[in-house]
Amino acid sequence: MNNVLLSHILNHCSVKPDQLDLLDSFFEYRIYKKNKLLLSEGQRCHEKFFIIKGCTNLFYLKQNGTEQTIDFAIENWWTSDFMAFQQNTASQFSIRAVETTAVLAITYEQQCKLLQQVPELSEYFHRTFQRAYAAAQIRLKLLYGYSKEELYHHFNQKFPAFIQRVPQYLLASFLGITPEYLSEIKKKRIS
Amino acid sequence: MNNVLLSHILNHCSVKPDQLDLLDSFFEYRIYKKNKLLLSEGQRCHEKFFIIKGCTNLFYLKQNGTEQTIDFAIENWWTSDFMAFQQNTASQFSIRAVETTAVLAITYEQQCKLLQQVPELSEYFHRTFQRAYAAAQIRLKLLYGYSKEELYHHFNQKFPAFIQRVPQYLLASFLGITPEYLSEIKKKRIS
User: Fold this and answer.
1) Signal sequence span per UniProt (chains A, B) (predicted)?
2) Which of A75, A78, A73 is CA-nearest to residue A27?
3) Within chain A, which residues score under 70 in pLDDT?
């Protein structure tokens, strides 16, 4: 079993050693080169992805043809269009590798079988989704309460390494501003 | 065991009849009169709430002293400040009964004990949080892509009964507009 996912699982629940050996066969290890798509908008979404190493962005195509990034995922995060994943429907989002990205992918059907064989993992998924939802509540608070400039400063203060890591045009999209305006905000900070 | 929660649980996981009898002692049944607070911003958040009947809003106090509603919960939804709940820290949000509201409350400690005794419930919480997170992804997409007016029309089309149910000043806050602007949007629709 991949050590990154194994550590993440064991941080959140107890699984017996003989059950851990079972896990491997349920996941598919893949590497996506930079800019490759893990999921395309409109495609049936039957997988979710655990990021072992790398970074992805979740985005959709706006009516004017530009891509709107609404979230990123890095190491130790799960990413997918979770509504489409649970309903086995067409995805409303695409997911792209921002860097060369190694993932473990699991299909909905495989996850159902895995949870039947290792039910302890439900607690792992309960905790990871509770955390993700909790983060979404705070994200909504920020979106309501902060100006775009304040949002940038907030993320820059909280996640400085991440802000440096992602391409600035994607960061601008995530913040809901143009890359030019992001440059202005950053210049203002320096001057 | 309360029938509303029982049905909700059995929709998402299998629990043996003798285990179901256990559940009752872990939850506290409460009725909050209209406008009463279930949780106050700044207060340690040690509970989450399942709405049996009624409606609550999750909000925070903006710097200008007004209340910003970021979410509602109705029958069959869980509500809390989930970051504060899982970390046992001060809440960033308040929760108020929009109508007289009946809930089942459970503390973090009681939930841990419950999941030890009835581990099947982890799958119930996994599925409910996955759905909540999936809804948050779609909510983020709407916030990025829609104007305030389009947001109103979207919610009005998707959830017409709910839009009628909540006080219009709270709906305006949730949409991020003034009550006056909400009236204008609604008038425009009729004319």
Assistant:
1) none
2) A78
3) 1, 189-191
What residue of B is the nearest CA neighbor of A142? B70
Facing residue for B126 by CB, picked from A125, A140, A145? A125
How far apart (Å, rounded) are the C-alpha atoms in residues B83 and B64?
Answer: 24
DSSP states of B132-163? HHHHHHHHHHHHHH--HHHHHHHHHHH-HHHH
Cα torsion A39, A44, B7, B106 to 10°: value is 0
Tokens of A55: 């970074």
User: Each residue of A137-179: pLDDT tens digit?
Assistant: 999 999 998 999 999 999 999 999 999 999 999 999 999 999 9
A129, A137, A144 member nearest B130 (Cβ): A129
Q: Are strands B78-79 and B47-53 parallel, antiparallel or unpaired?
A: antiparallel
Please state the φ and ψ torsions of residue A142, each to the nearest 5 degrees.
Answer: -65, -45
pLDDT tens sequence across B115-163? 999 999 999 999 999 999 999 999 999 999 899 999 999 999 999 999 9
Mutation target among A12, A133, A138, A142 for the B interface, most CBs of B within 10 A: A133
Nearest CA in chain B to A175: B144
- Residues in chain B whose Cβ is within 8 Å of chain A: 58, 60, 62, 68, 70-71, 81-83, 85-86, 92-93, 115, 119-120, 122-123, 125-127, 129-141, 143-145, 176
Give the tokens for residue A51.
């990021």
Question: Mind listing the pLDDT tens digit for each residue in B43-77?
Answer: 999 999 999 999 999 999 998 899 999 999 999 99
- In whole angstroms, give the CA distance from residue B136 to residue B104: 23
Residue B191 has pLDDT above 80, yes or no: no
Please tell me the total number of residues recorded for chain A in this structure.
191
Q: Is the entire prediction scored with pTM above 0.90?
A: yes
| Domains assigned to chain A | 3-121 (2.60.120.10)
